[in-house]
Structure prediction request, 173 residues.
Amino acid sequence: MENKITFIIGGARSGKSAFALNEANKFKGQKAYIATAQALDEEMRERIEKHKQQRGGEWDTYEEPLKVADVLREIKDKYKVVIIDCLTLWLSNLMCNGKDVEKEIDSLCGSLSTVHCQLFTVSNEVGMGIVPENELARKFRDFAGILNQKVAGIADDVYLVTAGIPVKIKNAK
Prediction:
């Protein structure tokens, strides 16, 4: 199967995850969902459970907050469709765990092209607002911008989702 990478970006609650799931469900075959969220409190546990129910039993879920590139390399030939949701949560996890963010971004980007399936990656656009007031938030915003640019550069298709409306902003093929 041809490797095709679709990058979906948008603001919080913009509909990007629902769009990714809808697009991915158009394909037949085994499906994997790499979830980067962590259930650190009850509200997040409820969100995660709701997302699992929305996906249904057709999806194998890999809950991986840090080693997304490793999971991709491990499953690269097992699935017809893979969703990674979401890259900015993954980035936050990396930063909170003191990881070398630039190295991890490069590792992830290197692993994206090894997957032989329809790959959907979801991320937040965080750079369209005001400059954050603290250093950590500015670092996060800057790393998110770097990550999003690198993934968009690799991706075949890129969609910006706003108010539930996906707009294709890159079509490489």
Observations:
- The chain has a mean pLDDT of 93.
- The longest strand covers residues 4-10.
- The first helix runs from residue 16 to 24.
- The helical segments are 16-24, 42-55, 68-75, 87-96, 101-112, 135-154.
